C-alpha cells in the first residue's frame, strides 16, 4: 500500500477510535478491518435474502396469531345475555353466562375449522346460502314496482301467464288387466255401464291441467288423451297404478290468465328479473378475474 494511503487509513482509524462506541454509527463503531468485513457481509445477496425472509416469516406468524384470536368482547357477552333473556324470559345467572360464552367460543372454533377445511366449498346447502346471500348483497331489496310497470311486464311476458292446456275426461279403472278388454271397450262405446274397480282419485276429471293428469296417470296416458277423439272411449291403457279406459270429453287450449288473477305473481317475477339483471351485471365484471374452462 502506498505511504499516502496508509497515512489516510491511519487517520480514519484514529478518528473512529476517538469517538465513544455508543455514538459512532454502526458499523463504524467497529474497528477498521471489522467494519470492512461487516460492510461486505451486508452486501452479500444471500445474507440480505435470509434477513428479509426472517422478517416476512415473523410478520406472517404475528398476523396468523392475530387471525386465530377469538375475542369475546363485552358487547358480544351482553348480546348473548340479551338473547338468552328474550328466549327464556329471565336474565342469565353466572353459570348461564359462562355457558353462553363457552358455547359462543365453541361455535366460533368449529366455524373457523369448517372454513379452513373448505367445507363451505363442498357442502351444497352452505354454498347455496352463501350464493343467495351474495346475490342479496349485490342487488339489495328490489323496489316495489308501480302498477304501470307491472302491466308492462305482464304484457311483455305473456307466455309466463298462459295457463297450460286442460283436458276433461272420464275413466273406467281396473287394478289389473281384465278379461276380454276388447269386449269391454266395445261395450263402453255402445253406452253400456261398466263399473270396473274403485280408483282413489275418482272417475271424472273435469278441466284438469296436463301436468296434473301426467302426475296421476303418467306420460303415455296423457299422450293418448291428447290424440283421442272426443266422445270415444279408448283403452286398455296400462299405467303404474293399473289399467285404464278413458273417454276424452273436451280439450281446452292454453289461455292467457287475467292480469287481476296473477298480479301478485307478476310483481314477484318482475322483482326477480330486476335482481337477476343486477347480479348478471356484477358477475360479468367479476368474471374477468377468473379463468372459466367449460369442458365438452
Q: Could you characterize the architecture of this molecule?
A:
With 296 residues, this protein is α+β, with helices and mostly antiparallel strands. Among the domains are: 3-64, no CATH class; 74-116; 165-253, Roll (Chitinase A, domain 3), CATH 3.10.50. Helices cover 58% and strands 12% of the residues. It is built from twelve helices and six strands. It has helices spanning 3-18, 32-42, 45-67, 74-88, 94-116, 119-122, 124-139, 147-156, 181-190, 210-217, 219-227, 259-286, and strands at residues 162-163, 166-174, 204-209, 233-239, 242-252, 255-256. Strands 3-2-5-4 form a four-stranded antiparallel sheet. Strand 4 (233-239) and strand 5 (242-252) form a beta hairpin. Helix 4 packs across helix 5, helix 7 packs across helix 12 and helix 10 packs across helix 11. It is elongated, with a radius of gyration of 42 Å. The two termini are 77 Å apart. The model is unreliable at 16-30 (pLDDT under 50).
Strand order in the largest sheet? 3-2-5-4
Q: For this structure, what is the CATH class of the domain at 165-253?
A: Alpha Beta
Oligomer: single chain
Overall geometric form: elongated
Number of strands: 6
Order of helices and strands: HHHHHHHHEEHEHHEEEH
Radius of gyration, CA atoms, in whole angstroms: 42 Å
Report the structural category.
alpha+beta
Helix content: 55-70%
Number of helices, counting only DSSP H or I runs of 4 residues or more: 12
- Largest sheet report: 4 strands, antiparallel
Which residues sit in consecutive blocks of at least 5 with pLDDT less than 50? 16-30
Average pLDDT confidence is 82
Amino acid at each position: 500500500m502506498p505511504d499516502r494511503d496508509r497515512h489516510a487509513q491511519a487517520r480514519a482509524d484514529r478518528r473512529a477510535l476517538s469517538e465513544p462506541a455508543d455514538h459512532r454509527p454502526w458499523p463504524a463503531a467497529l474497528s477498521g478491518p471489522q467494519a470492512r468485513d461487516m460492510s461486505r457481509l451486508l452486501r452479500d445477496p444471500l445474507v440480505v435474502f435470509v434477513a428479509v425472509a426472517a422478517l416476512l416469516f415473523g410478520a406472517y406468524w404475528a398476523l396468523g396469531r392475530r387471525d386465530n384470536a377469538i375475542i369475546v368482547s363485552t358487547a358480544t357477552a351482553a348480546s348473548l345475555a340479551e338473547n338468552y333473556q328474550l328466549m327464556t324470559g329471565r336474565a342469565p345467572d353466572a353459570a348461564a353466562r359462562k355457558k353462553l360464552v363457552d358455547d359462543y367460543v365453541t361455535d366460533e372454533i368449529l366455524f373457523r375449522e369448517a372454513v379452513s377445511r373448505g367445507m363451505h366449498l363442498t357442502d351444497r346447502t352452505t354454498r347455496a346460502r352463501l350464493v343467495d346471500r351474495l346475490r342479496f348483497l349485490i342487488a339489495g331489496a328490489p323496489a316495489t314496482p308501480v302498477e304501470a310497470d307491472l302491466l308492462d311486464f305482464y304484457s311483455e311476458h305473456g307466455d309466463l301467464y298462459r295457463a297450460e292446456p286442460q283436458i276433461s275426461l272420464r275413466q273406467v279403472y281396473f287394478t289389473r288387466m281384465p278379461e276380454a278388454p276388447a269386449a269391454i271397450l266395445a261395450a263402453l262405446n255402445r253406452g253400456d255401464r261398466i263399473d270396473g274397480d274403485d280408483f282413489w282419485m275418482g272417475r271424472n276429471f273435469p278441466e284438469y291441467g296436463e301436468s296434473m293428469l301426467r302426475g296421476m296417470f303418467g306420460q303415455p296416458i296423457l299422450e293418448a288423451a291428447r290424440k283421442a277423439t272426443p266422445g270415444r272411449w279408448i283403452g286398455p291403457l296400462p299405467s303404474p297404478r293399473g289399467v285404464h279406459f278413458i273417454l276424452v270429453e273436451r280439450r281446452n287450449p292454453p289461455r292467457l290468465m287475467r292480469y287481476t288473477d296473477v298480479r301478485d305473481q307478476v310483481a314477484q317475477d318482475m322483482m326477480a328479473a330486476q335482481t337477476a339483471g343486477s347480479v348478471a351485471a356484477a358477475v360479468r365484471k367479476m368474471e374477468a378475474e377468473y379463468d372459466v374452462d367449460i369442458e365438452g
